[in-house]
Amino acid sequence: MLTIVATPIGNLSDASERMIQTLTESDLIACEDTRVSGKLLSHFGIDTKMISFHQHNEHKKLETLIGWLKQGKKVALITDAGMPAISDPGFLAVRAAHQQGIPVSVVPGPDALTTALAVSGLPSDRFRFEGFLPAKKGRQTRVKEIADSDITTVVYESPYRVVNLLELLSEFAEPSRWVCVARELTKKFEEIRRGQLAEQTQEWKNRPVIKGEFVVVIAGREYAE
After folding, report:
1. Other Cβ atoms closer than 10 A to 102
2. What's the confidence (pLDDT) of residue 87?
3. Spacing of C-alpha 147 from chain mean position
4. Are 61 and 51 spatial neighbours (Cβ–Cβ below 8 Å)?
5. Residue 225: CA atoms inside 13 Å, Cβ hemisphere, count?
6. Are 143 and 153 in contact (CB under 8 A)?
7. Is the whole-model pTM more than 0.85?
8. Mean pLDDT across the stretch 78-106?
9. What is the CATH code for 112-218?
10. 129 Cβ partners below 8 Å, 6+ apart?
11. What is the mean pLDDT of residues 146-172?
C-alpha cells in the first residue's frame, strides 16, 4: 500500500499520532529531501528506511517505488512539509499506484493552502489554487488571470518575489482589492497581514529584509467590505 502522509508545515506539535504510527510501521519512506525528513523522523524516534523522491528524480525513482509496492511493502510518501502532491512531489507516484491497482491511502494533516485560506478572512466557498507562479516567463499572464478572477485565489511565493507579486497585481487590479499575506505559518515568527492591495504592497515594499515562506490569498475582484 502507498500512503500519502501529511507532515507539519512548521510546528512539530501539529504532527498527528496517526502520522507517527504510519511512518513508524512503514517499510520505506519516500522523502522529498532525506536531510529535512531525517530531522522530523529523528525528533519522533522513527528509524524507517528513507529514499529520496523529488521533482528532479521522481521519474527515475518511480519504477523502484512501484517495485516495492508490488512486493507488498508498505510505502509512505512525504514531502518537506505539508501534504504531498499539493504543489509538491507525489502526483506521479499516486497516479502510477492507481494505474497498477495498488491501494492508496492518505493520512491528512497540515498544509499551507488551507491554513492560509482559513486564516485570511476571505471567501473560501470557492477558490483557485495557483501554487508557485513562474519566476519569469508567463508570470505576468498568470497574475492578470488572478486579477480578473471572480473567486479567491491562493498563491505560494518566494520571499524574493512576494513584493514583485503585489506590485504586478497592482498593475491589473484595483488598489482596493483585498489580500492576505501569510508568512511563516505555524512557526515562531508567524505573521498574518490582511488589508487592501495598495496598503499591503506599500507595507511589504518598506520592509528592509523579507524572509520566510509566504502564502498570498487574493480576494475575487467583486469582493468588498
Report:
1. 17
2. 85
3. 22
4. yes
5. 11
6. no
7. yes
8. 93
9. 3.30.950.10
10. 87, 113, 153, 154
11. 97
Which amino acid is present at 195?
G
Helix axes 162-172, 197-205, angle to 10 degrees: 150
Alpha-carbon torsion, ordered 92, 59, 110, 114, to 10 deg: -60
Here the cell at position 134 is 513562474
**Does the structure show a pLDDT above 90 at 120?**
yes
Q: Which fold has domain 2-107?
A: Cobalt-precorrin-4 Transmethylase; domain 1 (3.40.1010)
Residue type, 58: E
At position 223, the amino acid (one-letter code) is Y
Strands 152-157 and 178-183: what pairing? unpaired
- The cell 490569498 sits on which residue? 217
Alpha-carbon distance 22 to 27, whole Å?
10
Residue 183 near residue 7, CB atoms below 8 Å: no
